[in-house]
Design brief:
Layout lengths: L5 H20 L6 H8 L3 H8 L2 H24 L7 H12 L2 H4 L1 H14 L3 H22 L5 H24 L6 H19 L2
Helix pairs in contact: 1-2, 1-3, 1-4, 1-7, 2-3, 3-4, 4-5, 4-7, 4-8, 5-8, 5-10, 7-8, 8-9, 9-10
Organism: Spartinivicinus marinus
Pathway: Amine and polyamine biosynthesis; betaine biosynthesis via choline pathway [regulation]
InterPro entries: BetI_C, DNA-bd_HTH_TetR-type_CS, Homeodomain-like_sf, HTH-type_TetR-like_transc_reg, HTH_TetR, Tet_transcr_reg_TetR-rel_C_sf, Tscrpt_rep_BetI
């Protein structure tokens, strides 16, 4: 088995450090000095691997988005293709996965959303994530509903995911994740009650 080089180890170490710093101090107070101290490396290492704090935030969000994608994919892999209802539930569940609900991840998401309004590279990441969510939901819903209806349902469910997630992220003591998911699932069930015959 090949040995992991220092590059990937350092990157992982720095991503964990920036998430810990954002969790403790918030993005505006997260400096390269604090990150380097947390990671126990020199500040120059951050510039070497990420070209500064902004690049490191982007890398951290890429990791969180990858965890999100892998969580959804793992859930979908256990559900038959034709069971669109269970697959929609799996997508909802994946967005409330433990990797997305830690204190550090919640604060990183909030910082990311705020920064994405001002930084094109972060905005692009957010757009990819938002489109992926709607696309995945539309694909599953289109198995039972016409395309335009499936698309509309997907957009509303995606908005419910983001809205409920945001409320929970802003709470000092977020409610149980099961309760959060149930709120979004209720939106899905309202659509089913309205459109299924």
């Amino acid at each position: 088995m090949p040995k992991l080089g220092m590059g990937p180890i350092r990157r992982k170490q720095l991503i964990e450090a920036v998430l810990n710093c954002i969790d403790e101090w918030g993005l505006s107070e997260t400096t390269t000095q604090r990150i380097s101290k947390q990671a126990q490396v020199s500040a120059g290492i951050i510039n070497h691997y990420f070209s500064g704090k902004d690049g490191l935030l982007e890398a951290a969000m890429r990791q969180i988005l990858k965890d999100l994608q892998l969580g959804v994919k793992a859930r979908l892999s256990t559900i038959p293709q034709e069971d669109f209802k269970a697959r929609v539930h799996a997508i909802i569940d994946g967005n409330f996965d433990h990797t997305q609900m830690t204190s550090a991840a919640r604060k990183a998401w909030l910082a990311f959303w705020a920064e994405a309004m001002h930084k094109p590279e972060l905005r692009r990441l957010q757009n990819v994530n938002a489109k992926r969510l709607v696309s995945n939901l539309t694909f599953e819903l289109n198995k039972a509903f016409p395309r335009s209806q499936a698309q509309h349902m997907a957009e509303v469910i995606a908005a419910a995911i983001d809205g409920v997630w945001l409320r929970e992220a802003l709470n000092i003591t977020p409610s149980d994740v099961i309760t959060s998911r149930k709120k979004v699932e209720d939106v899905f069930h309202l659509f089913l009650a309205r459109y299924e015959h």
